[in-house]
From TrEMBL, chain A:
The name this protein goes by in its record: glycine dehydrogenase (aminomethyl-transferring)
Natural source organism: Embleya scabrispora
Top EC group: oxidoreductase
One GO CC annotation: cytosol
A Pfam family assignment: Aminotran_5
Domain of life: Bacteria
GO biological process: glycine decarboxylation via glycine cleavage system
Residue spans crossing the bilayer: none
Family annotation (PANTHER family): GLYCINE DEHYDROGENASE (DECARBOXYLATING), MITOCHONDRIAL, GLYCINE DEHYDROGENASE, DECARBOXYLATING
Domain Glycine dehydrogenase C-terminal: 375-476
Automatic annotation (TrEMBL), chain B:
NCBIfam families linked: PRK00451.1
Entry keyword Hydrolase: no
InterPro entries hit by this protein: GcvPA (IPR023010), GDC-P_N (IPR049315), PyrdxlP-dep_Trfase (IPR015424), PyrdxlP-dep_Trfase_major (IPR015421), PyrdxlP-dep_Trfase_small (IPR015422)
Keyword vocabulary terms for this entry: Oxidoreductase
An example molecular function term from Gene Ontology annotations: glycine dehydrogenase (decarboxylating) activity
Protein name: Glycine dehydrogenase (Aminomethyl-transferring)
Organism for this UniProt entry: Embleya scabrispora
GO annotation terms (biological process): nucleoside metabolic process
Pfam families the record matches: GDC-P (PF02347)
Length: 518, 444
């Protein structure tokens, strides 16, 4: 079809084929050091215009750093090519990164943060010169307090995981203030909560107890009953969990922990499906966190900067990171006089760009819009589930209702074909979509986790499901072909073995040159 | 109206999808949420601004209440710095593919992997160290993690930290190291550098800043490294990479772990939102094992001539091992790493050197000129300063307020009688002269 010498097709143009003919950009782009040519420059810098300073030998750099030397166009072109070899939300149906809530980040919000009245604000400016940004922080805090039902919110944490850490630091400070710091040395979490819940608690000095799912896929309440006691500092739990299953007994979990004097901390990374429907406060939680880059649409930026929000009940307010943003009815100001505060969790007030973007996003939606976000995310998820479960070899363990995402399994397909979930994902990329398996450990065999959010249309979901159906069929007819993927990508199959071998690994070009080229 | 961000909120599509699934309404999906946990009222939020035009107006009104540092003459630094951001940095980091990508896989996100690998590689050249992490949140976090890495590496639990560290950063270290690592302070001398101190075998790390919180460059680092190493401790140095075009890389002076913030390398100030942290070590497996953050490395593909990428030594991370991993890893600050890479590629070795020389010279000029104003005393005048210096005045608040009336943000208040003044390549000789004249006038 379309080969040289054949006649052209006729008008009207035929309908598109059912699966998109995609090919990722392939520029065969060298590593930037290979583009260097001595003497070239990408940008000029101002000359001093005042007498030079001679550095003492003890601190003078002896040889210039071996950075690339390139003209400006060539730096730009290199990076534009690399950007084209990257599959952002703006170019793909980004439903394949479950637990990460990929959604549309409105372009207009990016413009607010490139405005010099955000981009060129210094965080130590006088308060009267930053009333606008302080008002955004203050209003954003009020809105998230309403969305969670909790009393106050800190927008300081750098990300969801940083907010988890901030919350555990406040839990630690709270128990210490009551003289129970030594006694309460255990934190309880669940296997389907984000790994950072366990990791942050451990870092904060706690022994971690992990509840496994029961036969229904809920965290085992009997295991919780057995775990709680005078040593319990807190429960750190996600609901719905990363399986998409909502635990209907969540209030009982909270009560059990409260009953022994522990605190209950809600990881709301999966809040997208329950906005305006149920809140941390209704279930009795003392703390919660949101990821502004998940639920509130700020872009993921290749893995950050993100932004987190930590919400607390009234009794935990004294421990919030300082300073807090306050309003006296006329002016906004910073309050750093917080003697029980855990202190700083980052420089300054927060990832301001993302606070501004998230604020604009909530303002564009309002209460009704947030409810539509939640309901549509859940509808999209259930619709996609309906489509995925029609694919032979795919299943969703625990036949429970799901909210905004599902952890699926290719166990049957694997048993039939020997093709792993990871192979499916690589092959799916050949059709221009991203797909992720799951966090380790793989409690669900051959897992994959899809989270369609509210941003995608029915046609998007149909297309995504059709791609997976096609790849599953390929796995049956030609498993080696699927395992040999990718074919339409920038690069071909990677051999990862060297990445775990200290003799071979090359975490920088410098290490690569030393180990492999000299 | 179907909201522009939510295509499937359109009623006919919704009905079609519900019919396909075979349920009556979306409410059916929520059956697991008990009635007692329902919010049976709409959220109490401001009315939505669904038109983009009105949203722009609303945001414009809020932003209009800010005065930014391009409208005044600002000498504010203290951790967040007004270096020039090349237009190409903004061009690259606002590309939709990078801006909206997540932590994808090495295949469909090949460009992201390569761009981050190149960032760590250019940092490695600047630092003369072989291992650099994918950015962590900020310089505070990088220092906290670097000290924890040193404690895990040595199995010891005391760290000696320079007193020439910002109060906020020290606050973060106290919180982050609290459960099991004790912080002892190294005093600062009249020169602004670390005073003499002793190290014993309980010490995991000696920690310096380069330049430090007063803008002073530690000149005895090699000696301090020997002191630390003689007792089996590591030297951890937080260095601002913007200075390393002219300053010796800490690794060449004996530092074992180098860390810091990359905001200076192409990020706007953004009211403190432009931070990202780096951590670097030599390529020693036992030290590499202590990184909590991701490390990207080169791997071969099935086709000759192709660079593939992947995670180096993934089984250190909490992604792989939950609480048995090192600290935690999650979404951090990758795009700022890519941006810093663009910055370093634009600057090249000569640009970094020239920029360093300009900043060194103008800092010294500003110190000398301000120091000549009656009522102003420059602290640590004999020290080598990069970009910042502290001055003592009778009343810091009064001076700041008076200069504000001249359209000048004169510096960061360290205490009632001390200001930290920051000078970068963005401050011309005229700008400095304007500051000095204004100080003379209001002090006079």
């Amino acid at each position: 079809m379309g080969a040289v010498g054949e006649s052209f097709a006729k008008l009207p143009i035929e309908a598109k084929p059912p699966l998109r003919r995609f090919h990722q950009a392939r520029w065969d782009e060298p590593i930037i050091f290979e583009l260097s040519s001595p003497g070239r420059r990408g940008i000029g810098v101002p000359e001093a215009g005042v007498p030079a300073v001679e550095l003492p030998a003890a601190v003078r750099r002896q040889a210039p750093p071996a950075l690339p030397e390139m003209s400006q166009l060539h730096v730009l072109r290199h990076y534009v090519r690399l950007s084209q070899e990257t599959l952002g939300v703006d170019v793909n149906i980004a439903v394949g990164q479950g637990t990460c809530t990929m959604k549309y980040s409105p372009k207009v919000n990016d413009r607010f943060v490139s405005d010099t009245r955000i981009a060129e604000l210094h965080p130590a400016q006088p308060e009267d010169s930053v009333q606008g940004v302080l008002e955004i922080y203050w209003r954003m805090e009020r809105m998230l307090a309403e969305i969670s039902g909790l009393h106050r919110v800190s927008l300081q944490p750098n990300s969801g995981s940083a907010a988890i850490y901030t919350n555990i630091a406040m839990i630690r400070a709270y128990h210490a203030s009551r003289g129970e710091g030594e006694q309460r040395d255990q934190v309880i979490t669940t296997m389907f909560s984000h790994p950072s819940n366990a990791a942050c608690a451990k870092l904060a000095g706690y022994e971690v107890i992990t509840l496994m799912p029961d036969a229904d896929g809920h965290p085992d309440i009997e295991a919780l009953r057995a775990a709680v006691g005078p040593r319990t500092a807190a429960l750190m739990i996600t609901n719905p969990e990363d399986t998409g299953i909502y635990n209907p007994r969540i209030a009982e979990f909270v009560e059990l922990v409260h009953g022994v004097g522990g605190l209950a901390c809600y990881d709301q990374a999966n809040a997208n499906g329950i906005l305006g429907i149920t809140r941390a406060a209704e279930a009795g939680f003392d703390l919660c966190h949101f990821n502004l880059h998940k639920t509130f649409s700020t872009p993921h930026m290749c893995g950050g900067p993100a932004a987190g929000a930590s919400g607390v009940a009234e009794k935990l307010v004294p421990f919030l990171p300082g300073p807090t943003v306050e309003f006296d009815g006329e002016r906004y100001f910073l309050d750093a006089d917080r003697p029980q505060s855990i202190g700083k969790v980052r420089p300054y007030l927060g990832v301001t760009q993302n606070v501004v973007r998230a604020y604009a996003w909530i303002m564009a939606l309002g209460a009704e819009g947030l409810r539509q976000v939640a309901e549509t995310a859940v509808l999209n998820n259930n619709y996609l589930q309906h489509k995925i479960l029609q694919i032979r070899g795919a299943s969703a363990p625990w036949g429970r209702r799901r909210l905004e995402q599902v952890r699926y399994s290719w166990e049957e397909l694997y048993e039939e074909t020997g093709v792993h979930s990871e192979d499916i994902g690589v092959r799916a990329a050949d059709f221009g979509v991203h797909y992720w398996t799951s966090h380790h450990p793989y409690l669900v065999p051959e897992p994959f986790t899809l989270e369609p959010t509210e941003s995608y249309s029915k046609e998007d979901l149909d297309e995504y499901a059709a791609i997976l159906a096609h790849v599953a069929e390929e796995a049956r007819t030609d498993p080696e072909f699927v395992k040999g993927a990718p074919y339409n990508q920038t690069v071909h199959k990677i051999d990862p073995t060297c990445l775990d071998d200290p003799e071979q690994w090359a975490p920088t070009w410098r290490a690569y040159v030393r180990k492999h080229l000299s | 109206m179907t909201h522009p961000y939510i295509p499937n909120a359109e009623p006919a599509v919704r009905a079609e999808m519900l019919a396909a699934i075979g349920v009556e309404s979306v409410e059916d999906f929520y059956a697991d949420i008990p009635a007692a946990l329902r919010l049976n009222r709409p959220l109490d939020l401001p009315a939505p601004i669904t038109s983009e035009h009105e949203l722009v107006r609303h945001m414009g009104a809020l932003l209009g209440r800010n005065t930014d540092t391009t409208e005044v003459l600002s000498f504010l630094g203290g951790g967040c710095y007004p270096h020039h951001v090349p237009a190409v940095c903004d061009e690259v980091n606002t590309r939709g593919e990078f801006l909206t990508a997540y932590a994808g896989e090495p295949y469909e996100d090949h460009g992201r992997f390569q761009a981050i690998f190149e960032y760590v590689s250019m940092m490695a050249e600047l630092l003369e160290m072989d291992v650099v992490n994918v950015p962590t949140y900020d310089g505070f976090q990088a220092s906290g993690t670097a000290l924890r890495m040193a404690a895990r590496y040595t199995g010891r639990s005391t760290v000696l930290v320079t007193a020439a560290i910002g109060a906020d950063k020290l606050s973060k270290l106290h919180d982050f190291l609290a459960p099991d690592i004790e912080i002892a302070m190294i005093p600062v001398t009249e020169t602004g550098e670390a005073a003499a101190f002793t190290v014993d075998d309980s010490v995991a790390a000696v920690y310096l800043e380069y330049p430090n919180a007063y803008g002073v460059v530690e000149t005895r680092m090699a000696e301090i490294a020997e002191l630390a190493h003689a007792q089996g401790a590591l030297l951890v140095v937080s260095a601002d990479p913007i200075a390393l075009g002219v300053l010796a890389p800490p690794a060449t002076l004996g530092a074992d772990i180098v860390c810091g913030d990359i905001q200076s390398l192409g990020m706007h100030q953004s009211y403190g939102g432009g931070h990202a942290g780096y951590i670097a070590t030599r390529d020693e497996p036992r030290l590499v094992a202590e990184f909590p953050s991701r490390l990207f490395g080169i791997a071969p593909t099935a086709v000759p001539g192709e660079y593939g990428f992947g995670d180096v030594f993934y089984d250190r991370t909490s992604f792989a091992l939950r609480e048995e991993g090192k600290e935690w890893v999650g979404t951090a600050a990758s795009l700022w790493g890519i941006t810093a890479g663009v910055y370093l590629a634009l600057m090249g070795p000569e640009g970094m050197r020239e920029l360093g020389e300009t900043v060194l010279a103008r800092t010294r000029y500003a110190m000398d000129e301000l120091g000549a104003v009656p009522g102003v005393r420059v602290l640590h005048p004999e020290g080598v300063h990069f970009r910042e210096f502290a001055v003592e005045v009778a009343d810091a608040d009064a001076l700041l307020t008076a200069l504000r009336a001249h359209g000048i943000f004169a510096g960061v208040r360290l205490d009632a009688g001390t200001l930290l003044v920051c000078v970068t390549e963005r401050h011309s000789k005229d700008d400095i002269d304007t500051l000095v004249r204004a100080v003379r006038e209001v002090q006079g």
